[in-house]
Amino acid sequence: MASEIELIDIQAGYGRAAPVLRGLTVAVPAGTIVCLVGPNGAGKSTVLKVASGLLTPRSGRILVGGREVTGQGPQRMLAAGVAHVLQGHSVFREMTVAENVLLGGYTLKNKAFVAERVEFVKELFPVVADRWDSLAGLLSGGQQKQVEFARSLMVDPKVVLLDEPSMGLDPKATATVFEQVVRMRDAGTAVLLVEQNARRALETADLGCVLDLGRVHISGPASELLADPQLGELYLGGRPAEPPVTPKV
Ligand SMILES: Nc1ncnc2c1ncn2[C@@H]1O[C@H](COP(=O)(O)OP(=O)(O)O)[C@@H](O)[C@H]1O
Ligand SMILES: [Mg+2]
C-alpha cells in the first residue's frame, strides 16, 4: 500500500543546537495508524513539526502521497494533505464549537465542500454535533480534543498528525479519544500518532515505531512491539515493580 507521508533520513533540530532527529525514517501507509513512542524529550513533537512543515529539516526528504514536498512551509503542507493537531489544548475556549471547527476550513474556497465537511465531522464526532453552538471552553478536556480532531479533518487531509492527544485526560476520556482516532482511520484518514502513553497508543495503532537517540530504533506491527518483553521493560513501563525493601531490625 502506498504511503500517505514518508519522512526519509531526516536530520532536524533547533538553532545551532545539536540535531534532535538524526537520520529518522518513518512512513504512514494509507488506512493505518502509525504510532511513534518514546520518552519525554525524545523528539516526538519535533517529528510532527517536520511532517507539517513547521520546522524545516536540515537534510532528508518528505513525500506526501508520493510527491516531493521537502522544504514546504505549513500552508503548503496543509494544502498537500497534512493536518497537525498540536500537543496540549488548542481550542479557542471563548468561541463556539462551530467557530472552532470552521476555523479548520478557513483556507477552503468552496462553500459546498465546507458544508459537506461539516456534516462529515458532525457524524464522526457526535459530541461536536450535540454541542455545536456551545462555547468550547464549557466542554470537558476529552470533548475539546474531539473538537480539535474535527477542526483538523475539515480540509479532508490525507494524514493527520496527533501529538499526545491523551495528555491530561482521565482514563475514560482517554479511551474515548483513542476510539475516535480509530474512527478517523476507518473514515479514510491515515494517522501518525505520537504518545508518551506508549502501551495505550500501541494497543490502538496498526504499526509502531520506537524513537531513540533521534532515530527510529525499532518498528513493526504494533501488536508485535507490545508482545516484545525487552521492549516492554525498556519503553512501555512494563518492568514489574521492585519488591519493597524490608528494613533489617
Ligand atoms: N522550540 C524549541 N527550541 C529549542 N529546543 C527545542 C524546541 N522544541 C523542542 N526542543 C528540544 O528538542 C528536544 C526534543 O523535543 P520534543 O520534540 O518536544 O520531544 P518530545 O515531544 O518527544 O517530548 C528536547 O531536547 C527539547 O528540549
Ligand atoms: Mg512532545
UniProtKB/TrEMBL annotation:
Matching CDD domains, A to Z?
ABC_TM1139_LivF_branched (cd03224)
**GO BP annotations listed:** L-amino acid transport
Instruction: Tell me the ranges covered by the ABC transporter domain, including all copies.
Output: 5-238
Pfam families attached here? ABC_tran
Q: Does the keyword Nucleotide-binding apply?
A: yes
PROSITE patterns referenced in this protein's UniProt entry, alphabetically? ABC_TRANSPORTER_2 (PS50893)
Entry keyword annotation includes Translocase: no
Q: Which UniProt keywords apply?
A: Amino-acid transport, ATP-binding, Nucleotide-binding, Transport
The source's superkingdom equals Bacteria
Molecular-function GO terms, alphabetical: ATP binding; ATP hydrolysis activity; branched-chain amino acid transmembrane transporter activity
Q: Which SMART domains match?
A: AAA
Q: Which family is annotated?
A: Belongs to the ABC transporter superfamily.
Name of the protein in question: Branched-chain amino acid transport system ATP-binding protein
